[in-house]
Amino acid sequence: MEENKKKTASIVYNVALTVVCIVLGIVISVQYRSLSASGSASADAEKIAMYQSNILKLEQELNTLETENEELSDKVELLESATNEEQIEKLSEELNNIKKFSGVTKVEGEGLYISISLKGEMLSATLQRHLLSLINELKASSAQAISINGERLTAMSEIRIVGQYVIINGRQHSAPFEIYAIGEPEKLYSGVYLNGTGPLGVLNKEKACEVSWQMRENIVLEGCNPLDINTDMLKNAE
Fold first, then answer.
1. Res 9: pLDDT
2. 12-18: which pairs have CB atoms within 8 A and are 24 or more residues apart?
3. Tally of CB atoms within 10 A around 183
4. Other CB atoms within 10 A of residue 194 CB
5. Residue 111 main-chain phi, psi, to 5 deg
6. Rounded CA gap, 203 and 122, in Å?
7. HSE (side-chain half, CA atoms, 13 Å) at 126
């Protein structure tokens, strides 16, 4: 009798243990599927946000190009219908604009200020990649004038990294790197940060860097050294 009770208790115990294991397996499976679905939804949301940011950026660039096209059409029409004096005045204005854009004159305007300090050592290739990506994105976001540590960037400017130093216009600079860009502040910031996926957002996550930025109403940039623009090897092809 006692032996039968023991057998019955053993069977009940084993059945209960089996049921508990099955229930736990079902719960774990449901939770895993739930977490997987949540992770997939999160990844999809990040992709959607990135695509939306890229679309917004392309729309901004398209609007800028359309505006520039309209301005050029207006200039051509004005030159075709203007008197000699009006044409000379207009061409003189265009020449001044070209000088400002080429970087040979002192300019001012609203824009974005970025400071980059190094808290530790960073590979030269990594630092150069970050800086070039940041400058290129500022240009793509319609920056009209840019300087790094007082060096005005022109079409001839180079950015090279030697150790922890940056070579710009043939001159050596070290951290902290102060970047000034004149343009629409919000547009510049949106272009370089891009919801944390742009060059400024990526650079801000680097452990070896300390990055800060600020939109400013008045930025003054000196003109470049005239010797930095060398065209003595160029000849008109027409």
1. 47
2. none
3. 22
4. 21
5. 175, -150
6. 12
7. 12
Helix boundaries (H) for the chain = 2-81, 84-102, 124-140, 185-193, 199-204
The dihedral over CA atoms of 12, 15, 17, 20, expressed in degrees to the nearest 10, equals -120
Cα gap 103→119, rounded to integer Å: 32
Query: 165 vs 115, which has greater pLDDT?
Result: 115
Quick one: CA dihedral 46, 111, 206, 140, positive or negative?
Answer: positive
CB atoms inside a 10 Å sphere around CB 185: 19
Note the pLDDT tens digit of each residue in 120-142: 888 888 889 999 999 999 999 98
- Distance between CA atoms of 134 and 202, rounded to whole angstroms? 10
Rounded CA-CA distance 10/28 in Å is 27
Q: Cα–Cα–Cα angle for 60, 61, 64, nearest 5°?
A: 90
What is the three-class DSSP state of 176? coil
Tokens 């940056």 — which residue? 166
pLDDT averaged over every residue in the chain: 80
DSSP summary character for residue 139: H
Q: What strands, in cross-sheet order, belong to the sheet with 145-148?
A: 151-152, 145-148, 177-182, 107-118, 209-221
Q: pLDDT tens-digit profile of 26-68?
A: 655 655 555 555 555 566 667 777 777 777 777 777 777 778 7
Classified as helix, coil or strand, 235 is coil
